[in-house]
Design brief:
three-stranded antiparallel beta sheet; Rossmann fold; 28% strand; 33% helix
Length: 209
């Protein structure tokens, strides 16, 4: 069993709202989708959890794909949206996707779960996977905000501003935090930079290719 799958099984056991379709979608995402235009309406969700965001996108006419390193999450997503959609059991840092494939790539509470250099490499890959004028919707923990960081009291710093949790449901899973400047530099290939704090210490990031 992978670390990610063990985490997801813990969510199933203790945090039903996170492990089922019952928990609401974050309002920033709904607003972003409603205000944006997508030529192809093709979407990839990186770390798709139980597929609730893909269910929403499918219901408004998107062709949807997802990936997760938890077999449990992949099976729940397939159950939620149907087996005809491409839901991949893969680590997000090892995915190989053809360029110019999606006009929406999203990832919520996911891509910061490794060291910063790996996150930067993944961001470059995401840029290549987007079609022209494609858009992204991502969240990243904010370095300056204590709200999110102080949630995790029992942690070990394994790299500058990257922590491995020593307890809680996400034990041993790395969490990297980013400054505003780091975010701007990491996404310098994208245009129309927009980001805002969500009130809980995470930055909501949207860009276009």
């Amino acid at each position: 069993m992978t670390v990610r799958d063990n985490i997801y099984k813990n969510y199933q056991k203790w945090w039903e709202a996170y492990a089922t379709l019952k928990r609401w979608l974050i309002p920033w995402f709904i607003e972003f989708i409603e205000k944006s235009h997508f030529k192809k309406k093709s979407a990839l969700d990186i770390w798709c959890w139980n597929g609730k965001y893909l269910v929403y996108l499918k219901n408004i006419g998107f062709e949807v794909s997802g990936t997760d390193s938890s077999e449990t999450a992949v099976e729940m997503t397939k159950t939620a949206i149907g087996n005809e959609w491409d839901i991949m059991y893969k680590d997000m840092y090892e995915m190989d996707i053809k360029p110019d494939n999606f006009d929406l790539i999203m990832s919520i509470q996911a891509i910061h779960h490794w060291k910063k250099e790996e996150v930067k490499i993944l961001v470059k890959k995401i840029h290549s996977w987007l079609s022209n004028e494609g858009k992204i919707f991502l969240t990243l923990p904010d370095y300056q905000s204590s709200t999110y960081r102080n949630t995790f009291k029992d942690k070990e710093e394994i790299a500058p501003w990257t922590y491995s949790l020593l307890s809680w449901s996400e034990k041993w899973l790395p969490h990297s935090f980013f400054t505003k400047e780091e975010i701007k530099n990491m996404f310098n290939e994208f245009k129309n930079l927009k980001y805002e704090l969500d009130g809980r210490g995470k930055r909501i990031i949207t860009w276009e290719k």
